[in-house]
Automatic annotation (TrEMBL):
One of its GO terms (biological process) is proteolysis. Residues 147-249 form the D-alanyl-D-alanine carboxypeptidase-like core domain. GO terms for molecular function: peptidase activity. It comes from the Bacteria. This is D-alanyl-D-alanine carboxypeptidase-like core domain-containing protein.
């Protein structure tokens, strides 16, 4: 088959894209990797955020907004106030166009100071996670009622600070590579965990619930058969995100 130069370039681009998705935890040429001062501020910001997590607790941190995080940090010496450079870094990261990293999802939280109201969420017993009331909670209740104790809620509501923590930690543990982080975790503002979605897993399956091995579990097979797994990030998606068979899509955006 004959390819024109344009077709050949496009074909190469597609192969490169799928190679990144298959090897999402590997660095690639062209990845956005922070250097110098920006790299140092990433680590400083992450360390402060981790002290914040330990101070407020993991459950409370899931709902913590940006403004509230600043207040708590300022009032607790064991956390310490965010420096101007750290705040500027976090603001820059939030408002950056994630497409630069290779992430092509929708930005669902457009304001850095977006706040999750307590009355809008429900803490799911024995899970350590919250879900938004309404369709997300109704969906989980139906899944739990159908599958019983075999299914567990592995991740629910994530506020802006929670997504910052996950995303920056992933980048920090991979040589400050923001593109690599975005192949596994939505950058802050882009996660549907901030408005609706949640993750499920097989009880006693541990960290394998966040790997392709989850597709071998009874929970996955039953949910797929019953039509509850309308995946946000299906295999070979065009959003720049690895396959996430555990991620339950609630809103249809």
């Amino acid at each position: 088959m004959h390819f024109s130069p344009q077709e050949g370039a496009y074909d190469l681009h597609i192969r490169d894209y799928y190679d990144k998705m298959r090897h999402f935890d590997a660095p690639f040429e062209g990845d956005i990797v922070l250097q110098g001062e920006h790299r140092a501020i990433l680590f400083q910001s992450l360390q402060r955020i981790e002290r914040l997590v330990r101070t407020v607790g993991h459950g409370n941190f899931s709902l913590l907004g940006f403004d509230e995080a600043i207040r708590v940090a300022r009032n607790y010496p064991n956390v310490g106030a965010f420096s101007r450079s750290e705040l500027e870094f976090l603001e820059c990261q939030f408002y950056a166009d994630a497409a630069v990293y290779g992430f092509y999802g929708v930005k669902v939280i457009t304001g850095l100071t977006a706040h999750i109201r307590d009355r809008d969420v429900y803490k799911v017993p024995y899970s350590g996670n919250y879900l938004f009331k309404g369709e997300p909670l109704d969906t989980w209740n139906t899944i739990q009622k159908t599958l019983g104790n075999e299914v567990v809620l592995t991740s629910g509501v994530r506020g802006v600070m929670k997504q910052f923590h996950l995303f920056l930690n992933k980048a920090a543990t991979n040589d400050a590579n923001l593109s690599l982080a975005s192949r596994s975790l939505a950058p802050p503002g882009y996660s549907f965990h901030g408005v609706s979605d949640f993750d499920v897993g097989q009880r006693d399956f541990g960290e394998f619930n966040f790997t392709d091995r989850f597709t071998e579990t009874d929970v996955f097979l039953r949910l797929e058969e019953l039509g509850y797994l309308t995946l946000r990030y299906p295999r070979d998606n065009q959003l720049g995100v690895r396959f996430e068979p555990w991620h339950v899509k609630v809103k249809q955006a």
